[in-house]
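Sample intake sheet
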Amino acid sequence: MSSSLEAVRDRFREIHGDHPATPADDRVLTATHEPVADEQVLADMAAGRLPMPPYLLSDGTPVAPRDHLDPVAWAGGVDRLHDWFVHYWPDDRRDDAERAWDAWMAGRSGWLTPATPRTVRRVERAQAQAREAVTLLEADSRDPVGRGSLDEAVETLDRLLLPSTDLDRSRPGGTTPREEWGRRAPPRPPDPHPAADADPDRAARPARSLPG
């Protein structure tokens, strides 16, 4: 086993805790992730120069989305990654940009598709929309604006997030953003005006058997 691989595993557990993946997690992850095996890439991840892989499979193999390192080329190299990333936030939100950068480098954005600052911003906006919608629904669970806005926000998150795993739910933060807002939403109330049965006596009549 290479020292770089072991260093990535150790750093991963420091960041996410010791929550081993299961074979069920492996099946979900291998559909959208691939092993990180390059020795130099592993060394740069362990040293904090490249974003960490977001998952370890049950056998300890680090895996990342196939486009995980595309931002390195877009930024113009590893040394320019930070400035390229935080540029997506306005200057008056630099603290938010730095927090997002830290999460991205720690591999905590690995469930985004693609895991880029633009997608991080879109998730932020969808979560803000969901938060406002839930506030409306807490005041009135029948509010059509709140319900429609929440549905739109959750659908946006569905498009931006890769399939979640049981491993995601066991790590710090618990539920995924999509599940969080689905869980926090007040339940839909029953329809006060259900569609009238075209034949109100139908339910009272016994069913007729077919001729034999």
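Comment: Confidence is low (pLDDT under 50) at residues 202-212. The chain has one domain: 3-184.
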